[in-house]
């Protein structure tokens, strides 16, 4: 059995190699988030609708993350909320049955496979760069040029390490999100392939012949293999739903901590 990991549909655009499969799922993710956001705020009412109430609840949760950032802390709520909604949606996109598209010859011949946009290091690195620029800009906006004084503390020769810390923080965010989502999808793919080989009609017939003394009807064998093959990956898939939520939450909480550190008066 052979697996191809990390294979992308690559398209050359203006001399740049673009992972088009990632780009498409990225657009789908953005479209979903924007659609529900517009649906929530498009017709605001004093007595909120169900979807408006859900978004207000989500907003209040992220608003609580900024209460320790001072009077202007609530201004950081939109970036935290946007990051979480984008990442959780992108993570869950990968749980859709994209392999069904391989039944279309055009899609199959593209050479790539659609998956979560967050399983591409380019996407998570871009998110991390956004976080880096945002919390440095927030610190400069709050303290002016004095923000950079912390690079020379506690002593001047620590400056290279303090600068490096600012860039390592988002790097760890990118690698953590990318590695966890990619590992989960690889695990599901490997488990699915293993199950397909173990529960093939031929292997079930061999088992029945060796242990039950006969061969079952071909239709029954096919139904058994199909039923068991669809059930066994479910625990891993449910676990991946949990991982998708946790990774989005961790990314958002750490971003909140970095912003809080950048705008803190004693930093």
Counted by DSSP, the helix tally is: 9
Cα shape: globular
Could you give the order of strands across the largest sheet?
Answer: 1-2
Overall pLDDT score: 75
How many separate structural domains? 1
Percent range for β-strand residues: under 5%
Measured distance between first and last alpha carbons: 55 Å
> Strand pairing plus helix content: what structural class?
mainly alpha
- Overall number of strands: 2
- The Cα radius of gyration reads 24 Å
Unreliable sequence segments: 210-214
What is this entry, summarized?
The chain has one domain. It is built from nine helices and two strands, in the order E-E-H-H-H-H-H-H-H-H-H. It has helices at residues 20-41, 50-64, 77-93, 105-108, 121-143, 159-198, 201-212, 218-231, 234-263, and strands at 10-13, 16-19.
Any overview of this molecule?
This protein is mostly helical and 267 residues long. It has one domain. Helix content is 66%, strand content 3%. The protein has nine helices and two strands; from the N terminus they run ββααααααααα. It has a two-stranded antiparallel sheet with strand order 1-2. A hairpin with a 2-residue loop joins strand 1 and strand 2. Residues 210-214 have low confidence and may be disordered.
